[in-house]
Amino acid sequence: MNKKGVVLFDIDRSIFDTDKMSEVLYKNVLKILNTRDLEKVKRAKDDYKKTLKNQREYVPDEYIKLLCTRFKFKNPELLLNIYYGDDYKYIYEESVFLETFEVFEKLKSKYRIGIYSEGTKKFQNNKFKSMNLGRYVDNSLVYILGAKDNGRALIKIPKNSIIVDDKEHICEFLFKNGIKAIWLNKRNNHDNPNFVTIHNLLELPGILL
Fold this sequence. Notes:
alpha/beta
């Protein structure tokens, strides 16, 4: 019997620098479009996001369609390759927070490490697979869900899971449903009285070990 505990991690802004990824993606988009008009590129993304009910519904493919229309660019495959192509996997691997590797290294002997993320599966799955964390993460504990804050999501995960997430409302949802949550609050010094709050991922081993 495997006596290790289970720790599941959110991806974006928890173990992964989403802002860094976005900036590198933008640079490559500008290069392929042969333009310096970053504001126009960002405006297209903002306009696309305004059509979404929730940011987790973001689909790069739809954004690229709008971008091609705005720039009258006729080869969307070149832009999509930035998001999904093997030549650009380095963007995701290099956007993993450095502290992620240190924390995973410390936890791996006592915990099975997994992922608890939400978003469109094609994009999130490619992002995770390209992050090159396979030596730490148990593939049977990778949950890429359309939404994390519903009962159907909780049915999928082990009942003894500890979940680390940077979103307070997700931690509140988990807490109310009897799942141990640890809130990674990097934005300010606020702590939530209902669950453990940390302000840097490097604090995690001191709590779990």
